Amino acid sequence: MSFTLHPVNDVHRSDDGDLVGLAEIAELAGVSRTVVANWRARDPRFPRPMVELRAGPVFNRDVAARYLRRRNRHMAHVVSTINLKGGVGKTTTTVGLAEVLSADFGKKVLVIDLDPQTNATTVLIGEDRWRELNGAGHTLVSLFTDALRRDDEPARFDLNSTLQRKVSAVTDVQTVDLLPSSLDLIDVQDRLAGMPSGRFYSNNPTDLLRRAVRPLLDNYDYVLVDCPPNLGIVTLNGLRISDGYIIPTIPDVLSTYGIPQIQTRVRAFADSLGETIHELGIVITKFREASKVHHATLRRLVDDENLPPVFDTRIPEGNAIAASAEFSTTSTLRQKYSYQGGYEAFRELAKEFISQVEDIA
Ligand SMILES: Nc1ncnc2c1ncn2[C@@H]1O[C@H](COP(=O)(O)OP(=O)(O)O)[C@@H](O)[C@H]1O
Ligand SMILES: [Mg+2]
Question: Average pLDDT of 123-151?
């Protein structure tokens, strides 16, 4: 086989117009070349090149155009919330963002609770409803236990009855849905880790969530995944569907300690998939304006170029935010997160978050 090695632009200008490179695809789509390179890196539907030239890959124009038409259909932005430490505001940040994205920015949001602590679940639907769902097996735990069942046992997970629609006790929040967690996930996490390798192969344990929620994801603008404070198999399931992740942290030594490990591990996982999982940024939580330690740690985080960027917006420590962990009805987010800066902080954070996430899309 032999190819004539034109630079891509010449190929594009050739009479038949049948071949295009990344630059032409970018032009067709009206986006930058970097964006197209990102699609190519992350989107399994991206067409395969007919040939790789030194100038770059070359695609069939029709195939590329068909891909772009398909791509124009809506795609969700999926973001995981991770920190190896508990109590640093992961759940508060996930739920706060979800509610503000919905009520103030008109976004449709799915919260996926992967933490056995089930805090996001109980904040959004209350303990009573969680207990009912858990009793009926309508939590994400069923998805994972199905992977562990014997071949003669029936599958239990049912996406439709597990999906909780229009959750949140805030009246203004009308477009947040939830896939609830269960305390039983702790046990399942250990059993998944012990799955024999033969079963691993046929039933990839980090791909369970992706396969289950695939039909659902693109109904949403944003999907926020609240991960447990470790990098085990359940967290990897969250990362598997994520375009990026955020790291909420209290600006103190212990809470920020594990950030480099998270970066290394997530990069290795993304590399193993041949994809990019973007480091969207560190979110400063429970910030105390009067604390020297908080200011010093914040400076260190901002100055360290190896760490992910730090969001400008800091979530202040506040009683109303602490109380927001309870499932009790309020009509507005301002009432839930207080008039003393809590609500404004989440709204500002959401603005930054949207621009960060849409940047990588
Ligand atoms: N900005 C804040 N001000 C005051 N309390 C907060 C704030 N953020 C979180 N909390 C409280 O701290 C505790 C841990 O927060 P949470 O979001 O559950 O952390 P994680 O999910 O990382 O374990 C909860 O009781 C929560 O209500
Ligand atoms: Mg939590």
Answer: 94
Residue 320: what pLDDT? Answer: 85
85 plus 28 within the same structural domain: no
Task: Kindly report the CATH number assigned to the domain that includes residue 129.
Answer: 3.40.50.300
In this structure, the strands spanning 51-53 and 77-81 are: unpaired
Say which residues have a Cβ less than 8 Å from residue 94's Cβ, sequence separation at least 6: 81, 111, 120, 224, 225, 226
Tokens representing 93?
Answer: 């940040």
1, part of any domain: no
Q: How far apart (Å, rounded) are the C-alpha atoms in residues 212 and 210?
A: 5
CA of 87 to the centre of ligand 2 (A): 7
The number of the ligand 1 atom at minimal distance from the alpha carbon of 316 is 1
| Secondary structure (3-state) at 80 | strand
Which of 80, 92, 282, when mutated, tests ligand 1's pocket best, judged by the most ligand atoms within 8 Å of its CB? 92
Report, as an integer, the average pLDDT of 110-116.
98
DSSP β-bridge partners for residue 314: 284
Please determine, for residue 200, whether its predicted confidence score (pLDDT) is greater than 60.
no
In tens, the pLDDT along 184-196 reads 999 888 888 777 6
| C-beta of residue 46 within 8 angstroms of C-beta of residue 67 | yes
Q: Which domain holds residue 353?
A: 77-360
